[in-house]
Amino acid sequence: MSSSVPQPNAVRRVMALWAAALRQPSRALRIVAIGTAALLVVNVLWQGAQPYAVGLFADGWDKVAHATLHYVLCSVLLLALGLRRGVWAVVLCASFAAIDEWAQQFSPGRSVSFYDWLASVVGAVLAWAAAHALVWTGEMKRLQIARRRRDKLNRWWELYR
To answer: Is residue 7 part of a domain?
Structure first.
C-alpha cells in the first residue's frame, strides 16, 4: 500500500540532490535553468502588459505574488549560476523587478510601486537564503557523519592499540 506522504529518507535524498545541484550544477541543468528563467521573464512581461492583469490580485496579495514569482525566478537562476554566484541571481531578480515596475507605467490601469519592487527583492533574497540554508544543512550533516566515523575509528584504535 502506497502512501502519498513522502517518506523521510526520500525527502532527505531530494534535499541532497538539490544541494548538490546548487553547489555544482551540470551543464545540462544550467542550460535548462537559463531557458526556464528566460521563459519566466518573457511570460511576466507579456502577461503583465495584457488588460486582464489590472486588478488581478487584491491589495496586499499582489506583494505575495511578487515575492513568490521572484522566489521562483531566483531559485531557477541559482541553479543556472550556482551558489557561488548567488548574489548575481539576486541582483538579476532585483533588476528585472525594477524593469517590470518601470514597464507598468505604460500599461493602462497599472502603476509603478516601490513596495512591489521591494516585495520582489525580498522574495529573491529569501530564495538565496533558503538555498544557502539547504546547502549549509547538508554540509553540517556530512560533517556530523564524518565526525561520528572518526570517533568510531578512534575508539576502535584505542581498544586494539
So the answer is: no
Chain centroid offset of residue 160 CA:
49
Percent of the chain with pLDDT over 90: 35
pLDDT for res 129: 93
- Number of domains present in the structure of the chain: 1
DSSP letter assigned to residue 6: P
Residue 143 lies in a domain: yes
Residues 60-69, mean pLDDT to the nearest whole number: 89
How far, in Å, CA of 137 to CA of 15, rounded?
10
**56 inside domain:** yes
Among candidates 92, 90, 111, which has minimal Cα distance to 102?
A: 111
d(CA 5, CA 39): 31
Distance CA 146, CA 161 (A): 22
The verdict on residue 34 lying in a domain is yes
SS3 112: coil
Per residue, what are the HEC states of 101-131? HHHHCCCCCCCCCHHHHHHHHHHHHHHHHHH
Domain that holds residue 65: 12-159
